[in-house]
Design brief:
Distance between the termini: 33 Å
Helix content: 55-70%
Largest sheet: 6 strands, mixed
CATH class of the largest domain: Mainly Alpha
CATH superfamily of the largest domain: ABC transporter type 1, transmembrane domain
Strand order of the largest sheet: 6-7-8-3-9-10
Structural class: alpha/beta
Number of domains: 2
Number of strands: 10
CATH topology of the largest domain: ABC transporter transmembrane region fold
Strand content: 5-15%
CATH architecture of the largest domain: Up-down Bundle
Radius of gyration: 35 Å
Length: 610
């Protein structure tokens, strides 16, 4: 069901607080570890704030009175504090690293699962490399933020605030001077942070475009090499990656200016405070121990502010990446489950609980692709296919045959009219329930890297081994697999490149047999095969089509002749319908197609493409 653009939310332009809240939502399932990490952080922070006090006491009491025993006591107290601080740091670092990796793992799974819910048309409008970049580079930036930088930011904030409190406790007059730095640093952080975030987004976009070019070139390497286009692809990738480099330079300059300005201000203030404190010591208004402690707290505050400035820049950079991830997660698929789905197959216990009957009906269907709403692809298409019947779709390229097949599988929804199976509009059914009763064998079937067994079992992962063997036999693969040293455990390579086209087709047929669908779509399943492979594949298809509602995008006369009904599609309209002999006798568009293709057949064989 389509979703109006204004109903879709976007992460672009979200505030820092909104980003942190969304990241917090990812951490929420693991709040126990987060609490432990926070406790370790607070405990370590308090210890860090207390540690300068033994130094003050050692200077003012032990050294002044030349009491070695007191000095030893203060030294042991300080050493114990360092041990506590170290242990707290170990636990904090481990727990925060665990959280960072856990959140990234969950987010990658969630994002990938979300991607799989989008229809094929959505992917056709996007580059695969860019989507891969969002799952790798962009989410990786979140790992750094959650796993280490968030912890460092909390620790630095605690040190800065706690250090300021201890400064007031040590010398209120000098501490008041440090507050002069806070307002200008805050203004600087906000202004430069916005620029950093914008440039970080630009850098991630350029990197994603470079990844898209890389993926495209690698996946089409045969085409690249046969047209000697290596130089062209190299230049295209170089342009993109250089653009990413230029964007990273702008980002680095902005971050460098920001962090440098903060450090100059912070440590410049330390120098001024050191001078003023020394004057007070000479005047007798401040003890040497208090001055040393004040200096330690001042360095602590200055270092924490500098660290926070650096982390703020990193956070702005990471937000450029998280915007891209959250935009993807916020996008709502146009084709999705209804709010109140109807049971499918209908009838419950009265029918086979797993299979629909397969009664297919198109009623006054009109369709135009959302990207081209004024171009009608299908216009007033009406037809009915009863359970177990075969419908053949014939017509010239671009007539709308594949669009009809896509509507049957609900990769798109009709602009007007309805598509129903067993009397239920497909838009009223859960997608998983609907597609569980469907299978397809395409012109160029997709196999996944893995074994033959894995690819066949893809149709029904819970199938028993004897069911897989039966599907192999019915698909005509038995002899081929017996010749392989590893049999069904033979690796097929990415997209099945290690086996021939005919064998890939029969693996796809075995996969469909194992799925046992009620509705079967055959999209020119033998059009690119030689005579021998066509015969083997056609025999397997004949077994597959038994007792199933089958929609064939016609390719060979042998398939069309046996169809219960043939629809001739021209410019999105059904211009003729009937059985093979009826349409030939009518002498219309179908008869003309058959005549032309018979003339084009080299030996006038009774097997031309339609």
């Amino acid at each position: 069901m389509s979703n109006p653009p204004d109903e879709q939310t976007t992460a672009r332009g979200m505030s820092v607080g909104a980003h942190i809240r969304r990241l917090g939502a990812l951490i929420r399932p693991y709040r126990g570890r987060w609490v432990l990490a926070t406790v370790a952080l607070v405990f370590g922070g308090i210890t860090n704030l207390v540690l300068p006090q033994p130094v003050r006491l050692a200077i003012d009491e032990a050294l002044t009175h030349r009491d070695l025993s007191r000095l030893e006591v203060f030294a042991w107290i300080a050493m114990a504090g360092f041990v506590v601080l170290g242990v707290a740091t170990v636990f904090r670092h481990y727990l925060m690293s665990w959280l960072g990796n856990r959140v990234v793992t969950d987010l990658r799974k969630k994002t990938f699962a979300h991607l799989l819910r989008f229809p094929p048309g959505w992917f056709h409008e996007r580059k695969t490399g860019e989507l891969v970049s969002r799952l790798t580079d962009d989410i990786g930036a979140i790992q750094t933020t959650v796993g280490s930088e968030l912890s460092m930011a909390l620790r630095s904030a605690l040190s800065a605030v706690g250090g300021l409190v201890m400064l007031f406790f040590t010398s209120p007059a000098l501490a008041g001077l440090t507050l002069v730095l806070v307002p200008p640093l805050s203004i600087l952080s906000v202004r430069i942070g916005r620029r950093i975030r914008k440039q970080a987004r630009a850098m991630q976009d350029e990197l994603a475009a470079a990844n898209a070019s890389l993926k495209e070139a690698v996946s089409a390497i045969e085409t690249v090499q046969v047209f000697t286009a290596e130089g062209l692809e190299e230049a295209r990738y170089a342009k993109r990656i250089e653009g990413s480099f230029e964007a990273s330079l702008s980002l680095a300059w902005a971050r460098g200016v920001f962090v440098g300005a903060v450090e100059i201000a912070a440590f410049g203030a330390v120098t001024a405070l050191l001078y003023l404190g020394a004057v007070q010591v000479l005047d007798g208004d401040l003890t040497a121990g208090a001055m040393t402690t004040f200096l330690i707290y001042t360095l602590m505050v200055a270092t924490s502010l500098a660290t926070l400035a650096n982390l703020w820049g990193n956070l702005q950079r990471a937000m450029g990446a998280t915007e891209r991830v959250f935009e993807l997660l916020d996008e709502v698929p146009q084709i999705r489950d209804p709010d109140l789905p109807l049971p499918f197959p209908p009838g419950g216990a009265e029918v086979d609980a797993r299979r629909a009957r397969g009664h297919l009906r198109f009623e006054r269907v009109r369709f135009a692709y959302p990207a081209r709403p004024t171009e009608t692809v299908l216009d007033e298409v009406d037809f009915e296919v009863k359970p177990g019947e075969t419908l053949a779709l014939v017509g010239r390229s671009g007539a709308g045959k594949s669009t009809i097949a896509a509507l049957i599988q609900r990769f798109w929804d009709p602009s007007q009219g309805s598509v129903a199976i067993d009397g239920v509009d497909l838009r009223r059914v859960r997608l998983t329930d609907l597609r569980r009763d469907m299978a397809t064998v395409a012109q160029d079937p997709v196999l996944f890297s893995g074994t033959l067994r894995d690819n066949i079992r893809y149709g029904r992962p819970d199938a028993e081994d004897d069911e897989v063997v039966r599907a192999v036999r019915d698909a005509g693969l038995e002899v081929f697999i017996q010749r392989l040293p590893d049999g069904l455990d033979t690796l097929v390579g990415e997209r099945g490149v290690k086996i021939s086209g005919g064998e890939r087709q029969r693996v796809a047929i075995a996969r469909a047999l194992l799925a046992d669908p009620a509705v079967l779509v055959l999209d020119e399943a033998t059009s690119h095969l030689d005579v021998d492979n066509e015969r083997l594949v056609q025999e397997a298809l004949d077994r597959l089509m038994v007792n199933r509602t089958t929609v064939v995008i016609a390719h060979r006369l042998s398939t069309v002749r046996g169809a219960s009904q043939i629809l001739v599609i021209d410019r999105g309209r059904v211009v003729e319908r009937g059985r093979h002999d009826e349409l030939l006798a009518r002498g219309g568009v179908y008869a003309d197609l058959v005549r032309r293709q018979l003339e084009d057949s080299p030996r006038h064989e009774d097997r031309p493409s339609l």
